Amino acid sequence: MAAGLKLSPWLRRRIRAFSRIDWRVPRHAGLKGTALLFAATGLAGIISADRVGETVTWLSSVSGLAIESVRITGQTETSEIAVLNRLELPPQASLATFDLAAARERVETLPWVETATLRKIYPATLKITIDERKPYVMWQRDQTVSVIDESGRVIGDASEVHYQDLIRVVGQGADKRAGEAIALADTASSIRSRLRAAVLISERRWNLMLDNGVTLMLPQDKPEAALALVAQLDARDGLLSKDIVSIDLRLADRMFVRMTPEAAARRTVAIKEREKLAKRKGAST
């Protein structure tokens, strides 16, 4: 008779505990396993198709985080439609996954927009605050007139009536140097108050046009001194109130004043009258 197999007490206890376990399969285990398999397969498909972002957006929207309202404040020249177009909101856009930084960059490409601040207000609102550029001068090149800001950026069309009081700068390069012309006119306050336009000539020097049609042709070098001379003569003799068309100050040692055609005609008549009078006096002596 073969000797029986002897088990250690520790192993016998483990076998008895193992035999007492209820090995029945849980109810609906097959259905749950199948559902888990489908979910895992779907997730793998989403990842392989690179549609994770779309899926997250959809899940966010159906869970109550879809963008339902957009509030835009701070704009006067920028239309709300233009801002909404720059947002590029897809249908059922999710507030949770919406890219604020990219949207802000797009909004700031609008002509009048200097800065834009975008905020998410949960559960369903996107708030946009616009800080617009300030009109500085009108810039004319050829027949096109635009409103520009102080940096020289074109921000709008100058056809609107409420822009007509802006100083006009004219010529190639004048958009980037408008501040130079304004600062030059500021050195003579009596002239600055009458300034209507500044024309950049050959990108070297300025002609300033005043409200009464007089043009001051300034030199390239030391234009401030030339303006100071005009202001002095105007204060003393009313130079700018006379019947003149232009004052040429391009030469440092002299000034040329051109009269209006009417004033020139009157001056010609007066000179002829004086010449006739002088001849009569000469003939009578």
Description:
The protein is an alpha/beta fold. It is built from nine helices and twelve strands. Strands 6-5-4-7-8-9-10-11-12 form a nine-stranded mixed beta sheet. A three-stranded mixed beta sheet has the order 1-3-2. Strand 5 (about 145-150) and strand 6 (about 155) form a beta hairpin. Helix 4 crosses helix 5. The chain is rod-shaped. The termini are far apart. The relative contact order is 0.06. Residues about 50-65 have low confidence and may be disordered.
What descriptive keywords fit this protein?
285 residues; alpha/beta; 9-stranded mixed sheet; 9 helices; 12 strands
* Helical fraction: 25-40%
Distance N terminus to C terminus?
Answer: 182 Å
Structure summary, number of beta strands? 12
Q: Output the structural class.
A: alpha/beta
Strand order of the largest sheet: 6-5-4-7-8-9-10-11-12
**Radius of gyration from the alpha-carbon trace, in angstroms:** 42 Å
Q: Quaternary state, please? A: single chain
The parts where pLDDT drops under 50 for at least 5 residues are: 52-63
Average of per-residue pLDDT values: 83
Q: Largest sheet at a glance?
A: 9 strands, mixed
The portion of residues forming beta strands comes to 15-25%
List the total number of helices. 9
Shape: rod-shaped
- The SSE string, one letter per element, is HHHEHHEEEEEEHHEEEHEEH
